[in-house]
Amino acid sequence: xxxxxxQQIIRIxxxxxxxxxxxxxxxxxEYFITNTIFNIKKNFREKDPISIAGRLxxxxxxxxxSFGEMKDHTGCIQIYFNKNHFYSEKMEKEESYNIFLxxxxxxxxxxxxxxxxxxxxxxxxxxxxxRLTILSKSLRPLPQVKIDKKNKKIYDxxxxxxxxxxxxxxxxxxxxxxxxxxxxxxxxxxxxxxFLDHKGYLEVDTPILQSxxxxxxxxxxxxYHNSLGIPLYLRIANExxxxxxxxxxxxxxxxxxxxxxxxxxxxxxNPEFTVLELYVAYKDYYWMMKFTEELLKCIYKKVQxxxxxxxxxxxxxxxxxxxxxxxxxxxxxxxxxxxLIDMEEKELRKVCKKLHIEIEENIKMSKAKMIExxxxxxxxxxxxxxTFIIDFPIEMSPLTKRHRQNKNLSERFxxxxxxxxxxxxxxxxxxxxxQLDRFREQIKLSEKNNTDESMFLDKDFIRSLEFGMPPTAxxxxxxxxxxxxxxxxxxxxxxxxxxxxxxxxx
Length: 506
Prior knowledge:
By secondary structure, this protein is an alpha+beta fold. Among the domains are: 6-142, CATH 2.40.50.140; 178-313 and 435-495, Bira Bifunctional Protein, Domain 2 (BirA Bifunctional Protein, domain 2, 2-Layer Sandwich). It contains 14 helices and 21 strands. It has helices spanning 6-20, 37-42, 93-104, 161-166, 168-174, 176-198, 239-247, 285-303, 328-336, 345-354, 367-378, 432-449, 459-466, 479-486, and strands spanning 49-61, 65-72, 75-82, 87-88, 110-119, 125-136, 146-148, 153-155, 202-203, 209-210, 222-225, 230-234, 252-260, 272-281, 310-312, 315-317, 325-327, 387-390, 412-417, 420-427, 472-478. The strands form five sheets. An eight-stranded mixed beta sheet has the order 9-13-14-21-20-19-18-17, with helices on both faces. Strands 1-2-3-6-5 form a five-stranded mixed β-barrel. A three-stranded antiparallel beta sheet has the order 10-12-11, with no helix packed on it. Helix 6 (176-198) crosses helix 8 (285-303) and helix 10 (345-354) runs parallel beside helix 11. The protein is elongated and about 90 Å long. Homodimer. Keywords: Aminoacyl-tRNA synthetase, ATP-binding, Cytoplasm, Ligase, Magnesium, Metal-binding, Nucleotide-binding, Protein biosynthesis.
């Protein structure tokens, strides 16, 4: 058996021995379960008959009696075997204990057990196992994590980051805290959905495959539809479709959207990510700031067990409202000393050089990109508590209304928490003539800058605006980063079941 470890070879031999004994190690029948481990412990009654299933995670053979531990999706429980009261299918009691339990069962096997409850002298709830059925034979050994409770040490933990992300299934088996991250993720999404439903907004689905990747400036993934004979793109944003629904007469719509961007990867970026997008008619970005505060306070109260600050590494975060509102150019001036108001491209290049921000000399770069880079590198990390960065230069916001008091600015905000952008919001541009001009300007910039990151011209969206879109406030909230915040993680890979990875080396 080439390329198999010694342990795998031994386990395959055990598999074949089970089959020779007439035992199917992967039985097709339903296994009847009376309870979960959590409920068994919560509602303990001495001598209660029990039938449960789960994974064997520890086994200590002691002669005539043995102890083990098994876990299901709700927790772990101790199990006890006695030679005189234990049997398995198709075997006598003596054979069951000596052959089946001692020689053919392995840690990692998924088993069903029937027995009765009791408490040991150490007052630990335990199942006295009378019958054991193997439900799935494990052919690879699990990492054996050892916990020294007295000295508060963990040995042989499955902690290698790359291994954990590649083999999330093993990570979930042996590291209970990882399971808790994803349970909390589900709860956060549920609370957001409940909050929005209570407000009367409609959850919708919009296309993932799009003929035009609109709604953002990003590099898309490209595929091809054979029947239609056209290229299609995995969506980079769902914004333009949701606005079409507002035009169609819905008052408020939202979607938990899987978006895809063919760009770099780091601790806060994954090429596939989840965003909540919400659009509400007859509102503006001032209203959306208050709404966002209300939503985050609600999640904080429902998800956090204690009313205290969130601690991520050395950063302590609280959710006291109202959140500060700081114009982006004021933030840049405060953090760099440079006033960028009315600066042209040449002057911005000089500022970038003085701030040691890398800008390639021979490549054209828009004012918007340079301002964005200055803010990201010199300002963003300084906002730990929730802060609204507002009133972006108009060049940075092609889908946003011009500011009602300054035509060179836009009615836009970004919510920053723990030095990261969590949300992006606009008073949505609903003037079709202005929107068409902005699209064309973006296309010119991308051609001038020779970049494959550009805003595509969506003619159907312009046509939809020509039928009239009411004043609308929209927001996109990064769900993965929000989960990072509430689970106190600093890497996006920790809150994705299966983050994108480089191919595994042979």
